[in-house]
Design brief:
By secondary structure, the chain is α+β, with helices and mostly antiparallel strands. Helix content is 18%, strand content 34%. The protein has three helices and ten strands, in the order ββαββαββββαββ. The strands form two sheets. It has a seven-stranded antiparallel β-sheet with strand order 1-2-6-7-10-9-4. Strand 9 and strand 10 form a beta hairpin. Helix 2 packs antiparallel against helix 3. The chain starts with 11 loop residues before the first strand and ends with a strand.
Length: 180
C-alpha cells in the first residue's frame, strides 16, 4: 500500500490499474479525498421554492479547467516519510509516460478533491486536484513538473526530503514526486 499525499485526507481508493510501458509495470491509482467545504445551494434551488420558481434543474457541469503548463511553486516536505525515492524509479515513470503518451491523449481529467498517482518502486508521481471542480492536466507536465519538484528536494540536495511538491496558483492543484 502506498501512502497518499498528506493533503488528501480521508483518502478512498477509486481505481487501481497497472500500465505496461515497455518492460516496466507502472501502478496507476486514483483516490477521492474528503473535503471540509460544503457546497451551498441558493435559496431558490431548494424544494419547494425551486418547484414554485422552476429552478430545480441542476446546471450542466462546467468544462474542466486546463492547467497544463501552468506555473507552480516548488516546496519540499517529509509528508511521505523519512527517505526520498530513488531517482532511477522516478525516471522510470517519466520514461513510461513518454511511451504511453504516444498511445493515448496527453491530457487527463481529475475530479474535484481527487489524487492521481503513478508509482514504480520507491517513487510516486502525483497530481492532486484541491479544488471543487474538475481539472484537466497533461501527462507531459506531470512528468516534467514532478521530476523538477523532486530534483529540488531529493539527493544530492541536503538536507533531503521525501516529497517534492509544486503547488499551482490559488492552491487549487499540486503536482509532485514522493517516496511511495
Amino acid at each position: 500500500m502506498h501512502p497518499v499525499h498528506a493533503r488528501c485526507s480521508g483518502a478512498k481508493l477509486v481505481q487501481k490499474t497497472t500500465i505496461s510501458a515497455g518492460d516496466q509495470l507502472i501502478e496507476y491509482t486514483s483516490h477521492s479525498c474528503s473535503t471540509q467545504s460544503v457546497s451551498r445551494r441558493g435559496l431558490f434551488d431548494s424544494p419547494p421554492l425551486c418547484i414554485l420558481f422552476g429552478t430545480c434543474k441542476p446546471p450542466p457541469p462546467p468544462a474542466p479547467m486546463n492547467v497544463c503548463g501552468s506555473i507552480c511553486t516548488n516546496s519540499c516536505n517529509d509528508n511521505a516519510g523519512d527517505l526520498p525515492p530513488t531517482s532511477q524509479d522516478c525516471q522510470t515513470i517519466a520514461n513510461a509516460i513518454q511511451i504511453f503518451q504516444g498511445t493515448q491523449n496527453d491530457t487527463f481529467t481529475v475530479a474535484a478533491n481527487h489524487l492521481e498517482t503513478l508509482t514504480f518502486g520507491t517513487c510516486s508521481l502525483f497530481f492532486e486536484n484541491l479544488s471543487s471542480a474538475s481539472i484537466e492536466y497533461c501527462f507531459s507536465s506531470l512528468s516534467t513538473e514532478g521530476i523538477e519538484a523532486g530534483d529540488e528536494c531529493f539527493p544530492p540536495v541536503q538536507p533531503f526530503s521525501s516529497e517534492g511538491l509544486c503547488t499551482g496558483s490559488k492552491n487549487l492543484w499540486a503536482v509532485g514526486a514522493a517516496h511511495s
